[in-house]
Structures are given as structure tokens and as C-alpha cells.
Amino acid sequence: MLMPLERLRAIYELLFREGVMVAKKDRRPHSFHPQLPGVSHLQVMRAMGSLKARGLVRETFAWRHAYWYLTDEGIAHLRQYLRLPPEIVPLSLQRVRRGPVPVPPSRRAAAAPRVQTVPGPLACPPKREEGWGARQAYRRKEEPPEPHVEPVAVGGVSQPAPQPSPGPGQPPAGAG
Fold first, then answer.
1. Which domain of life is it from (predicted)?
2. Under 8 Å CB-to-CB from 57, ≥6 apart: which residues?
3. Exposed, middle or buried: residue 60 (CB in 10 Å: 0-12, 13-18, 19+)?
4. What is the pLDDT of residues 19-28, one digit of tens each?
5. What is the structure's pLDDT at 120?
């Protein structure tokens, strides 16, 4: 596809600056890329297809959007094409440096009473006692355990049930 060199250079500059390129799968010539003024999605897809064929980018596709990630060879190629010094690297390879987040004094004062003051390895805040009674209302009541019942063997088809033994002075159950 014939493309003006300034558009191709703009695509390559954005790819190198970000380290990743995103384009909507929309082949209409009048649907333009949101980050590149005057460049259509079709032109971005064709330029990235050329880089992908040479193994300079890796492609992923999800939900009508294509994502192209620069490989190490792609970084070297674009650095040479755009005539950039080796100190400049894509944003995807730069580490984000975050300083310590200061805690406002109002939050520090509010958090102080909830901090555990007992020395030791525990770092949990102490439990609050005001809600303890309300939680206990929903729990099971303590009941005495049920008395233990011995299981009795019941006779089946092949054996009759056992007969109780006769007490003293009573005739046997079968004689009578």
C-alpha cells in the first residue's frame, strides 16, 4: 500500500515512544486513528503488518482491536530508522518511579486509636466491643448435649429379632 512517508514516520514514532500500538479493526478509509491525526486505521494496520512480517512486532487481537508490541529486534530497527540515540527507550521498558505517598495528618490521627498497642508479632487491630452483643443474638444457643442412645440390632429376614430374657420366676416365652 502506498503511504506518504510522514504518515509512516508518525506511526513508527508513536510505536517507538509507547512500545505498543493499538488500532481498531476498521478498514474504512475515513476512520482515523485517535492518536495520529490524518492517519487511518487501515494505514496503521498495513504498516504494522509489514513490521510483523519481518518479526519486529508481536500481534494480539481482542474485541475488534489489534495490539502490536515491539520486540527487541523491532526496537533496534526503529532506533536506526528514526535515528535515535541508544539512551531513548520505549515507555513499555521504562520503570515507573513512584515516590512515597504522604499520609495526610487527618488520616494519621484517625488511624492512631485503632492501631494495636500490645507489643508482639501480631499486627491486627483490636476487635470492637460495641457490636459484640448484636452478633451474639444470631448465633446458636448453648444447649445441653442429648443423652447417648445405644443402637439396638434389629432382626432381618434371615434372623428373628432377639427376645428379652425371662425374669426370675417367669416361664420361658416359647413354653406356654
1. Eukaryota
2. 15, 21, 48, 51, 68, 69, 70, 71, 74
3. exposed
4. 999 999 988 8
5. 60
Look at strands 20-24 and 57-62 and give their pairing.
Answer: unpaired
Extract long-range pairs of 67-72: CB within 8 Å, 24+ residues apart.
67/20, 67/21, 67/22, 68/15, 68/20, 68/21, 68/22, 68/23, 69/19, 69/20, 70/15, 70/16, 70/19, 70/20
CA 124 to chain centre: 25
C-alpha cell at 97: 518511579
- Cβ 96 vs Cβ 27: under 8 Å: no
Q: How many beta carbons lie within 10 A of that of residue 78, not counting itself? A: 20
In this structure, what C-alpha cell is assigned to residue 137?
443474638
Q: CA 39 to CA 23: how far, in whole Å?
A: 11
Give the pLDDT band (50/70/90) at residue 16.
very high
Higher pLDDT, 144 or 157: 144
Q: Domains in the chain and their CATH numbers?
A: 5-85 (1.10.10.10)
- Report which of 102, 101, 76 is spatially closest to residue 89, judged by C-alpha positions: 76
Q: Which helix (H) or strand (E) holds 62?
A: strand 57-62
User: How does pLDDT run across 152-172, given as a tens digit for each residue?
Assistant: 666 556 666 667 776 676 766
| CA proximity to 39, closest of 60, 12, 72, 73 | 12
